[in-house]
Prior knowledge:
The complex is a heterodimer.
Chain A: E1 5-8, H1 12-21, E2 25-28, H2 34-39, E3 47-50, E4 59-61, E5 67-70, H3 75-80, H4 82-87, H5 89-97, H6 101-106, H7 109-114, H8 120-123, H9 165-171, E6 175-179, E7 185-189, H10 190-193, E8 212-218, E9 225-231, E10 242-251, E11 254-263, E12 270-271, H11 273-279, H12 286-296, H13 308-324
Parallel strand pairs in A: 1-3, 2-3
Antiparallel strand pairs in A: 4-5, 5-8, 6-7, 6-8, 9-10, 10-11, 11-12
Helix pairs in contact in A: 5-9, 11-12, 12-13
Chain B: H1 12-39, E1 49-55, E2 58-64, H2 70-77, E3 96-99, E4 102-105, E5 118-120, H3 133-140, H4 150-165, H5 185-191, H6 202-215
Parallel strand pairs in B: 1-5
Antiparallel strand pairs in B: 1-2, 3-4, 3-5
Helix pairs in contact in B: 3-6
Amino acid sequence: MQPFTYERATSVTEASASVSKHPNAKFIAGGTNLLDLMKLGIERPAHLVDISRLPLNQIETQPDRSMRIGAQVTNSDLAVHSHVRTHFPLLTQALLAGASGQLRNKASVGGNLLQRTRCPYFYNTHTPCNKRVPGSGCAAIGGFNRANAILGTSTSCIAVHPSDMAVAMTALGAQIETTNATGQTRKLGIGDLYRLPGTTPQIETSLTPGEMIVAVHLRPPPRGKQIYRKVRDRASYAFALVSVAAIVEQRNGRVASSRVAFGGLAPRPWRAEAAEQMLRNGKTDPATFSAAAEHAFAEARTEGSAGFKLELAKRTLCQTLAVAAT
Amino acid sequence: MNGASNPFLPTRRQVLEGSSAVALVMTSRLAEAAPAATGAASLNATEPVAFDLTINGKQTALRLDTRTTLLDALREHLGLTGSKKGCDHGQCGACTVLVNGRRINACLSLAVMHQRDDVTTIEGLARGDDLHPMQAAFIERDGFQCGYCTPGQICSAVGMLQEARAGWPSHVTADVAMPRAPLTDDEIRERMSGNICRCSAYPNIVAAIRDAAEKA
């Protein structure tokens, strides 16, 4: 690990100012992803600003059931919060499907959103990777890529965003609250937080240098049944090959409204608006779900051994919709 | 099989390109790092940092390189070698300790970030000669073979039972809104999936945890 200086932040603005002032500085919260990458020499910060003790660990609920979740709330605390379990079970299910008990006790909500891809070529410093070393090439294209993306990819990068939590938050239309070095705050939709790789896969979010995620806002829970379904190589403690977050409001055998997002398939949590449009007013039957699945993946591009994911994703979507529509 | 035609292996050219690119980035990052050290006035990246921890009930003052993980602080600087280094990347759970009562991977945590935290390791579970009920259950049920993962398994199981008693659901809980799921073997296995046992003593580990849960 490269040597770094350490600073324990005492205020949000001070932390933000410090990261924007120091060249090559980073925030550290739970550290479960950043330290892993630092040990491997993939992340090489010269200065760490510890934000884990900032007063950002509150979960606030409103009478209309909307929520404000502090960015330093741990994944465990969010998953087991009674309001989340009762009104946003999708979010609890997604959180509990991710990582291990130990990691969830340490990982923060903000850090979960900003975690890096687990693409094997991003991790292997002996191979090219445009995300790790811009311009070096993509070894995943034409390489061992069965876990890579089939939506939103580019000729520069086919890496997947690994989060489960962010997929549920995408289906729920979460808003991200940030603060910058001058104390200015802004809110952006979770869809606007993440950037597609294009020709610059090293730039993953729309956050500016030193801008810190301070909270996640959830609107009142949408009507309908919420289901998070994760398919992976083993039953526990593995990243998704495919995951589906679905919220379906069923009325008289028809889909009154729906929200669908995918994980494990794209460089960012993927809201499937095309599928939602196909579902609207459709009968809650296999033909409608199948049509939605065809629509959702009309633009999918499979690379090498990730081809199996296309069929797996369609079937997982149909199965999840069938459960959510009951 | 010829490496060049194997899609799972990088080509020789890719490896060469990769290494030169890595060398380039290292040079440029070193150049970036220099002003950071001087610009940070009182901060020097190679200067040890002082902080306090409570370890197994004993307040301990440390002065360590910022890069020291909690696991290395315990093993290399405090002589508490019960916590094991398996993968050192949070994948195996051999380093599991309790911090402020919660189980975490000590390998994926910087020691300096634990200022004034209360750390319990495997060495701190027994009361004198009286083993912790979880330790006794592991012996009773023969919940190990080589024993390397055992301290992590036991610390994790202690933390896990506290979570279950607090009513936390898990990935296999049918209804996450239910106040408290019964701790079935499936629940124990899911909740312990962050601890790997390469001897595969899982059936006896599950039995030991079940016993300890019932006795408590």
